[in-house]
Amino acid sequence: MNEEKNNPEIITESKPKDLSFTAIYGNQFREYQEKTDQAEASLLPKSISEEDMQELQRSKEQVLIGRMAKRKLEEEQKRGRGRAPKAEKAPKAEKPERAERAPKPQKPAGERSSGKLGIGRIIGRILTVLLTTVLAVVLALVVIVASIIHGPSESARDTFVTTVLESGNLKFLATMFLSEEEINEIVSRTSMAAMETDIDTELITADAPAEGNFDENGIELVQVNGRSFFGTLMIVADPSKVIVGTTYPWGEYGKELGQLTEMHGAIGGVNGGLYAADMNKGGRPYGICVSKGEILLNDPSGWTGLYLIGLDDKNILRIEPISGWSTTQFKNFVEEQGIRDAVAFQDEATDANNHFVPLIINGEARQLNGAGSGANPRTVIGQRADGAILLLVTDGRGASGHLGATAQDLINVMLEYGAVNAANLDGGSSSSMYYNGEYLMTSVTLYYANSSWRLPTAFLVNSAKEGGN
User: Fold this and answer.
1) How far apart, in whole angstroms, are the C-alpha atoms of residue 19 and residue 221?
2) Is omega for the bond preceding 249 within 30 degrees of 0, making it cis?
3) Is residue 441 in some structural domain?
4) What is the average pLDDT across 335-349?
5) pLDDT digit string (tens) for 59-104?
6) Which domain holds residue 248?
């Protein structure tokens, strides 16, 4: 025994510890029990039976055990070492069987679609506002048009009527307020006299480029202004550089002027002749078309007042009436006259179509009644005595607040810049000019305000530095 006590390396087998409540708290419990027994002995009746005494003893022990455990727990909690014992979880009560859920009452159809109806109401209100605005604008336009047509100014009425007659979609503004007789009377007051178009080629010298203030491409740009229009004049020194570019073979859609110019390797150009402009498809010209001496379209018959406008192989601008010609007549004319590039446009003054072609022939201006036409965007081609080609494009129809140019305006500009011969081309929304990679004059149509309408033909200009196509 002494050896085991003195030698720490000798390990004795230890007994398991008694962890019962009596073993841990026995002494304290006995002391507490003795004190309570003495205190309670005096209170008990002397005749109590042994069984009652034993039952009382058991009850007292249970109470004492509970009190001692509670006191011990409180002491340990004060010292921070104790934790409250976890209470045993009560057994989960069995869930009653779920009763079948009663079906939800169906909402009335009006209530179920209230969200959709809410969106529908919003859309309906927006459409109502838009429709009201459109109707108000239309009503205001009707009042304005009526005041112009039935107002005191005959000049304003004549200008308005002839202007809308030249448009593609606004002719109804004239026919809505005026009879056919009234329209014809107004047209006659602003009409043009017939004009002979036998070009005197001796008046033109086109065998060499003209001299002047031209850039490296042989082009001079001039800004022109009138009372109701703004325009750009492109002067081309060498008439041989002016060609007709096309989208041939014809398809449903044409090309914008910039695309046509780039496609043919040209430096600039303006829109050309008569074509199918419905829905801005622009895929096919009307009447005739000649490019580089090749006839691409030969259909002059059936077009009232049709004119050929183009250049021959001597680089002379030709303005020739071809209305009613057969395909054979036109083919023979092209071959005999050496027509190398040409398009067509109409000279037609009626309530259905108010167009015009010749402006100046052999230095003589066309005779006009009044302004000769309405005011609209215009495109004109002319030629000076030195052979230089004049290409003019003007704005109109509200662009920059301008109404447009009349036939008289065009004649004045062409004469000022030395035109010996000049002709009006397709105008309106088609009028546009492109040069050196940018538009100088764009379509007056809002959607194409930065470009042009689709076109099947155009008068293009090759650079003087290069041969071009």
Assistant:
1) 115
2) yes
3) yes
4) 95
5) 777 777 777 777 777 777 777 654 555 555 555 555 555 555 656 6
6) 201-461
